């Protein structure tokens, strides 16, 4: 194989590989010999079909497979010989005009991971905010629980139904005077004012008494799920079989027992533990932000543009998706596009922090054990239908990038905990409200996976109204999958070669490209 470097600028590299035709033909010959014992052809005994006939029958597909495998082996050889550390999958393209029997010219483009100076982890100073569980918050949650466990008792005879009451009805729904499928039912309980039924249904039942009959005149919403009912006028003939009022719910031992607990004290203890866990999470988030800010302020090195672009597109895609659910979609999208430069700066910060944490972890022997990995795979597999779980587990085990995505959050947590242990930590008493206010007040904060934060880069010049859950994208969390030192870069299949399976950067054995099973519907 002949190798010519065509670009070496910053982190970008490009090469032209010339693969001799004899190398491709030799692989075809090996493949012919491998499949010969299984080839069947009329007039020949099994395994005795001449190789020239096998080539005639299967030559095109054999050559395509051999070409793909040879190209991938050549890319792996290039990476090994040049001691490259690809940031993402190399782009591999077969030059136009290639034909069987000719040398193959392959263009390879990639960005390498930067050579980073030794991370500075000495002298870190952090503040841990401490807060006690607020009893008033516990009382408020108990009240909410009581409201969610509302019991209904038969109302006094002649009681007229009001909002908050439960009305039990039999009903027949009709469109153009004809009953429609799914529009008839008995003993349906409706809490007036809940908004669970189509507009006007609950409102027209206010004032009815047990035994009353009434015809409701309604219009199905234009976005109603059933196509045959969208926007249609309808009538519902209803009969009220019962009217019930909400009974007072006492927060006592019986209330706790109804929830499967021993007594009220056990319920309060569980709620207190829950609040304490939430406080611990807020405190950790606050410390983590300060830690990442210090790391970002003390480390500056070039990052691969391709990684920044991928992270930027992920951020923008998330924001655009959230904007699509806003009342004023166009305004929300316009706000996002206006801040695109800010988000690109956030993407660069995320990538840099991800690479930095990966370097710190690798330099200090931080890793994910096989037991931990098995637990992560099991937790992720639980999101799939039982019939798909084994296939998902196999997919992760055979796909290094998928495994890296699973490892990344835990790996990041381990590196962060390691840095916490190295820092000088002081404590300051606070309250939950103060911690939340401080977290929310910082410009650029975004709630997302890891509850991210990127206010150090590209701060907006003034406070703005957040479009479409803008907080969902500017996370403190480094770019997903980039904090795992085990993430492998794999070459993309050469174009226009078909069905070329990408292989691990440090492994010459091709890994079959597989699609992960779809998650179960939630």
Protein described:
With 522 residues, this protein is of the alpha+beta class. The protein has three domains: 2-111, 2-Layer Sandwich (Alpha-Beta Plaits); 125-130 and 269-472, Orthogonal Bundle (Trigger factor, domain 2), CATH 1.10.3120; 152-247, Chitinase A, domain 3 (Roll). Helix content is 41%, strand content 17%. The protein has helices spanning 21-35, 51-81, 135-148, 253-258, 264-298, 305-323, 329-338, 340-363, 370-381, 386-398, 400-422, 432-441; strands at 2-9, 12-19, 91-94, 104-111, 125-130, 151-154, 166-175, 178-191, 213-219, 233-247, 424-429. Strands 6, 7, 8, 9 and 10 form a five-stranded antiparallel sheet that branches. Strands 1-2-4-3 form a four-stranded antiparallel sheet. Strand 1 (2-9) and strand 2 form a beta hairpin. Helix 5 packs parallel to helix 12 and helix 10 packs across helix 11. Residues 443-475 and 485-515 have low confidence and may be disordered. It is found in: Cytoplasm. One of its GO terms (molecular function) is peptidyl-prolyl cis-trans isomerase activity. This is Trigger factor. Its EC number is 5.2.1.8.
């Amino acid at each position: 194989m002949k190798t010519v470097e065509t670009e070496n600028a910053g982190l970008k590299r490009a090469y032209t590989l010339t693969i001799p035709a004899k190398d491709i033909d030799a692989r075809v010959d090996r493949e012919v010999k491998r499949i010969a014992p299984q080839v069947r052809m009329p007039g020949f005994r099994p395994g005795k079909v001449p190789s020239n006939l096998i080539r005639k029958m299967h030559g095109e597909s054999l050559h395509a497979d051999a070409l793909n495998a040879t190209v991938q082996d050549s890319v792996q050889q290039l990476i090994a010989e040049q001691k490259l550390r690809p940031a993402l999958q190399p782009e591999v393209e077969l030059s136009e005009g290639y034909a069987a029997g000719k040398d193959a010219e392959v263009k390879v483009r990639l960005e390498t991971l930067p050579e980073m100076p030794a991370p500075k982890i000495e002298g870190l100073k952090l503040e841990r905010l401490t807060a006690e569980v607020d009893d008033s918050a516990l009382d408020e949650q108990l009240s909410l629980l009581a409201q969610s466990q509302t019991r209904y008792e038969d109302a006094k005879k002649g009681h007229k139904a009001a909002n908050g009451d439960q009305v039990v009805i039999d009903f027949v729904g009709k469109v153009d005077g004809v009953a429609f499928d799914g529009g008839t039912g008995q003993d349906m309980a409706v809490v007036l004012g809940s908004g669970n039924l189509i507009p006007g249904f609950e409102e027209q039942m206010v004032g009815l008494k047990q035994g009353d009959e009434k015809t409701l005149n309604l219009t199905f919403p234009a976005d109603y799920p059933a196509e045959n009912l969208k926007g249609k006028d309808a009538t519902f003939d209803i009969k009220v079989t019962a009217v019930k009022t909400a009974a007072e719910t006492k927060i006592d031992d019986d209330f706790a027992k109804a929830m499967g607990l021993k007594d009220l004290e056990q319920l309060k203890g569980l709620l207190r533990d829950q609040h304490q866990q939430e406080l611990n999470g807020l405190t950790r988030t606050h410390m983590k932000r300060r830690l990442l800010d210090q790391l970002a302020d003390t480390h500056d090195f070039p990052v691969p543009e391709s990684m920044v672009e991928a992270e930027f597109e992920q951020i923008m895609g998330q924001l655009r998706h959230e904007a699509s659910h806003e009342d004023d979609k166009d305004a929300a999208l316009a706000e996002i596009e206006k801040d695109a430069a800010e988000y690109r700066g956030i993407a660069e910060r995320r990538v840099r922090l991800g690479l930095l944490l990966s370097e710190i972890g690798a330099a200090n022997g931080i890793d994910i054990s096989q037991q931990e990995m098995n637990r992560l795979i099991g937790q992720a597999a639980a999101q799939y239908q039982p019939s798909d779980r084994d296939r998902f587990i196999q997919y992760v085990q055979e796909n290094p990038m998928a495994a890296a995505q699973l490892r990344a959050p835990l790996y990041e947590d381990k590196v962060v905990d390691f840095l916490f242990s190295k820092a000088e930590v002081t404590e300051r008493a606070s309250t939950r409200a103060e911690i939340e206010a401080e977290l929310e007040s910082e410009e650029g904060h975004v709630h997302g996976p890891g509850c991210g934060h990127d206010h150090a880069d590209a701060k907006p010049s003034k406070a703005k109204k957040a479009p479409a859950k803008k907080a969902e994208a500017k996370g403190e969390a480094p770019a997903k999958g980039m904090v795992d030192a085990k993430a492998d870069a794999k070459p993309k299949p050469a174009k226009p070669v078909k069905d070329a399976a990408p292989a691990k950067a440090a492994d010459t054995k091709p890994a079959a490209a597989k699609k992960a099973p779809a998650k179960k519907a939630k």
